[in-house]
Design a protein that fits this description.
Layout: H1 2-9, H2 26-51, H3 59-68, H4 74-94, H5 98-117, H6 130-145, H7 163-182
Helix pairs in contact: 2-4, 2-6, 3-4, 4-5, 5-6, 5-7, 6-7
Length: 183
Amino acid sequence: MKRIAERLRASPTSPGDAPGRPAVSAGDCGLLLIRMTFGLLMAGHGAQKLFGIFGGMSLDETAKGFAGLGYQPGKAYAVIAGASELLGGLGLALGLLTPLAAAAVIGVMINAMVTVTAAHGLWAVSGGMEYNLGIAVVALGIAAIGPGRLALDRPFRWGKGGWREAGVALALGGIGAAIVLSI
């Protein structure tokens, strides 16, 4: 496992590359593809809740849905969920504050699983938690691996990923979800 992680982080250099400037690896491009896909989909999902775009409901309609799930006041929770998805998704897509972005996404997905999808089992065809679980695990994986060379976090310590970053993402996401679920 350690060797795989090192190969993902390490970009090969060719003799023609400038000294000190490694080429971008396939792992870096793969991480960018994963971050952009999941991050932008989450950001769009949040924009649906907040702004009613991309086929989403208005914020007032979303708030009614949250109130129907027992979240009171519904509008406040709709804003929290929408902002977490929008900002967490954009953070993942850009590779910006990656552990915090992953925590936001993980927290929202835990809430979605507990309040809506877990009661329907695992598979999405039955309304289950397959989708939510997949997104949460991708966010956690990105925090653990790090966002890659093609990320705004690259110069910072947390831009390398690791156990600490994954732990922060999982702990903050779990704590945030627990707080929301207990209120």
